[in-house]
Amino acid sequence: MHTSELATTLQRLYGTNGEALAGLMARYEQGLAAFGAEYGPGEVVILRAPGRVNLIGEHTDYNHGYVLPVALDKDVLVFARPRPDQQVRLANVEPAFTSRSFIISHDISPCPIGDWANYAQGAAQLLEREQGPGLRGFDALIDSAPPYGVPRGAGLSSSSALTVAMAVTLVALNGLNLQGEALADACGRAEWYVGTRGGIMDQFISILGQPGHALFLDCRPTTDGPAGARHYPFRQVPLPTGYAVVVADSQVRHRNTGPHFNRRVLEGRIGVRLLQARYPGITHLRDVNHLPWDELEPLLPEVIHTDELRARGIDPDALLDSGVGAQTDTFYVRRRCRHVITENNRVLESVAALERGDAQTFGRLLREAHASARDDYEISTPEIETLVRLAQAVPGTMGARLTGAGWGGCIVALVRQEETARFAEQVGAGYAQETGLDAQIFVCHSAAGAGEVIRTTV
Ligand code: NG1
Q: Whose C-alpha lies nearest to ligand 1, atom 12?
């Protein structure tokens, strides 16, 4: 491989130099060597898909709302070689993820919920259905190991990064004409295969991310894309100069494939059904953002049970199609809807604040978003609360909040550039003392979106 070509490419994708670049080069070279050891000499295509940190707009995407994520420089790497048949063989640099293999078809039987192969199978099944038949398979080695990989279950979207990485591999090796928004949209649908009914934020930012920018994405599709295709309005919003986006990982892990995530999705859908009594035209909570909360609140009971919903002609079981189910008959509709509706408005205000360089206002919105996620959406944990409190206490922290799905994972903070070292020291030490856990704290260096990195041989 031409080392200088790889170095130039990595510089462009990750915006790094010096020691950081040397570390990345070593990661790629080790991956290549491991691929050669696993599958033998020959050609190799290297592809990548980043994780993300969401600045603001939590649990809004599946309600057709607004989000503002940033693509991380932490990513999933795929070292791949096309095969003449439809088989996919997957190895992983982390021994905990044992090898998997499947045949690409219209109907690939899922592995048990949570199995890592499902992310590859979901991408392969969807692309075979929509871009096939006859997509060729590949042999691949996956690398999402620390410190360069996307931490799993941390709310940094490791699952979508893997789905997207598998999709870009299939696209590249089959020469498919599928990219940008259309690819992101396909990846969003592909991930339903694993049993969640999440939104499209993670796949979009993994594909459309740009260094130095957050992606302001409107998760409501219009049909004015090419040939009537679905189109999601988006624009790149520059990150504020003089400030760092800092992520602190609580080390408490959560999986969206459990019931909590789907329960929140369902509570939002129940809210829409109840609001339809007064506003028959609405289809998503997004449709009522502009209405005063005082008008909406009386239509949304604080708590409602399945029996009462059925009496009103609403069958909660029919509103969720994930197969996982809500596994409850008690729904906290009012507070969940209040979070989504106010959060959408906070995203709009955040974009306006960032575009006029107003870090103060953006910081306030981060703090308000956290309170809403904690009190109304109830997705915080004691560890996350500790991290947020410690982060807010550091001078130079404009605002901090939990990021991602919640129930553990990470916080994100906007911190004055010159205070980031103090932030890491103070928050890390305080967190260790109070919880006995070792928070992983890092400055988010935003990177480019997913795609092919380089073609080479081993
Ligand atoms: P994470 O944080 O990666 O678990 C999930 C959803 C997002 C979004 C957020 C909450 C998937 C694949 N991801 O992300 O779409 O709803 O939660 O804002 O479902």
A: 198
Give me the domain span that covers residue 39.
3-239+447-457
Tens digits of residue pLDDT in 277-313: 999 999 999 999 999 999 999 999 999 999 999 999 9
With a 6 Å cutoff on the Cβ, whether 268 touches ligand 1 is no
Q: Is the peptide bond before 211 cis (omega within 30 degrees of 0)?
A: no
Q: Residue 348 corresponds to which tokens in the numbers above?
A: 């709009």
**Within a domain: residue 232?**
yes
pTM: predicted TM-score of the whole model, two decimal places: 0.92
Q: What is the CATH number of the domain that holds 174?
A: 3.30.230.10
Give the residue whose CA is nearest to atom 6 of ligand 1. Answer: 198
Q: How many CB atoms lie within 10 A of CB 151?
A: 23
The DSSP output letter for 108 is P
Domain count, the chain: 1
Is the shortest distance between the CB of 158 and ligand 1 below 6 Å?
no
416 in any annotated domain: no
pLDDT in tens, 57-81: 999 999 999 999 999 999 999 999 9
Q: Whose CA is nearest to atom 5 of ligand 1?
A: 405
Average pLDDT on 242-267 reads: 87
Alpha carbon 200 to chain centroid distance? Answer: 8
Whether residue 405 has its Cβ less than 6 Å from ligand 1: yes
Residue 2 predicted with pLDDT over 80: no
Among the atoms of ligand 1, which is closest to the Cα of residue 54?
18
Catalytic positions, written as ranges? 202
Judge whether 265 lies within some domain. no
421 lies in some domain: no
Please report the atom of ligand 1 found closest to the CA of residue 52: 3
Ligand 1 neighbourhood includes 196 CB (under 6 angstroms): yes
Residue 375, pLDDT above cutoff 70: yes
Among 388, 379, 392, 376, residue whose Cα is nearest residue 435:
388
